[in-house]
Each structure stands twice: as C-alpha cells, then as structure tokens.
Amino acid sequence: MAEVPPPGSVIVADWHRCKESKEYFSKLLHKKRRKKFGLLESPVMPPHAAVDTVHYKIFLSGKSGVGKTALAARLAGLNIPNSHYETTGIETTVVYWPVKLRDSGRVLFFRLQLWDCGENALRRFDHLLPSCKEQVDAVLFLFSFTDRTSFDDLSNQIAKWTRPSVGQVVKVVVGTKFDLFMHCDVAERDVRGFQETWRLPLLQMGGEASDGLGDIAPLLNCLTEQLWHQDCVAAGSSRHHSQLDTVTVL
Ligand SMILES: Nc1nc2c(ncn2[C@@H]2O[C@H](COP(=O)(O)OP(=O)(O)OP(=O)(O)O)[C@@H](O)[C@H]2O)c(=O)[nH]1
Ligand SMILES: [Mg+2]
C-alpha cells in the first residue's frame, strides 16, 4: 500500500484559519453560509488572484444507512437528510476546496466530485460499481460508530480496493455518527487496532453541521493532501500535474 504523507507535509495544515486564505475561502461562502454551485458554476477569483483548479473523482463506500448521502451533503454544505432515504442509484455532488501547497506556496482549488451510490442499488444493479470505479482517484470508506457490522466489514471492503487490478487510489476511513456516543458500538481500542493494521487515516464525523468550515476541514485537508501526494508520486515530480486547468474568470 502507498505510503501516507504525514498531515501538513504536503499542504499547509489548517490553512482555512489563516488570514491570507480568507480571499479564497470566501468564494465558498455567501452571507456566511455555504454557496451552492450549479453544474456549470465554480468559484471565481479576481484576475490578479486567478488560481488553477484540479479535478478528482471520489467514491463513497459503505453499508446502507452508514451516512454516505449525509456526508456528501455535509461536505457540500447542503441540507443533511434527517431520515434514511435509500439512494436508488448514483448521485454526484461537487465540493470545492482551496489548498496551499507547502513547498511552492502555490494555491489550488480542488474540485472533488463525490460519487454516492446506495448500497442496495449497488447490489441490485451490476453496472453501477464499474461506473463508480472508472478513473476514480480516492475512496472514502465509511463505517458508523453505532453499527458494529459496518466497522467489521471495513477490512473486507479495503482489501477489494487494494488489488493490483484496481490501481492506485487514495483511501481514507470515515467513522460517522460519532455524535451518538450513547449508542457507540465500536470501542476506541478496536479503532486503534484497525489503524495499526491498515495504517490509513481515520476521521470522525457527526453532529449538527455548522455554517463554518471547521468541521469539514480535517477531512477535506486530509483527502486533498493525499490526492496531491499520489499525483506527485505518479508523475515523479511535485511540479507537474496533468489535470491543471485555469479557473475561468466569467
Ligand atoms: N446523528 C447522526 N446521524 C447521521 C450521521 N450521518 C448520517 N446520519 C443519519 O443516518 C441516516 C442514514 O444516512 P444516509 O446518508 O441516508 O445513509 P446512506 O449511507 O446514504 O444509505 P444508502 O443510500 O441506503 O446506501 C440518516 O437518517 C442520516 O440523517 C451522523 O454523523 N450523525
Ligand atoms: Mg444514500
């Protein structure tokens, strides 16, 4: 398995808290709330501060009800569903996230297209998984802290994505429903044991979504850092990135 870069070694950690990042993060907000980007929309910087955008495809994996659709909504700043409505096919959601590279000081917008497919739909229709897997850059493996079986199944899921036929994909584990600690079914020592075995980043999610970016920043920073690292390793140079395109100034 590819080595995971230590947090903050590739991108500036907690950059969203720095004053100089305000100009970029403000493009994600409207009246202090998350801006909704339509299919053809993207953050627009003034000409003097135009930055490049890099595109990635992310697949959300996990049992039905663990919170894949809720996580996609949380990351995009959309309304989180209160009830569980099974996702009947593939839904995609786009999330923008600005990042500052540590070595060069260069700023990039990451455009993350999240692919969320209902687990039951995946099982019912064979053609869905190949579409989700096609040219995927990263997989978020979700388990719920309130559902032991979703945690026990993680190793199985990750192993499927670690075969040589799959190629290199960034892997991040997300434990959802961390706010429901009264119903917690996964002990801390089990989580530690899992991390020692797999050596993958594991982040916890849960609770009311805030209007700010603080609750999603750890996951998005971790994901973008690994995506960039994976590309640099693949290209053999930290300066080259084939997906670069300039943010269009409308
Ligand atoms: N309290 C709490 N509830 C959550 C959290 N994440 C998801 N939920 C709830 O869990 C339920 C199921 O979440 P979904 O996101 O619909 O589950 P899913 O993984 O998309 O399920 P399928 O589409 O059937 O595969 C919903 O009622 C969500 O509101 C969380 O972090 N905390
Ligand atoms: Mg769903």
UniProtKB/TrEMBL annotation:
The keyword Transport applies. InterPro entries: P-loop_NTPase (IPR027417), RSG1 (IPR039677), Small_GTPase (IPR001806). Keywords: Cell projection, Cilium, Cilium biogenesis/degradation, Cytoplasm, Cytoskeleton, Exocytosis, GTP-binding, Nucleotide-binding, Protein transport, Transport. One of its GO terms (biological process) is exocytosis. It comes from the Eukaryota. GO terms for molecular function: GTP binding; GTPase activity. It is found in: Cytoplasm, Cytoskeleton, Cilium basal body. Belongs to the small GTPase superfamily. Rab family. This is Ciliogenesis and planar polarity effector 2. The gene is cplane2.
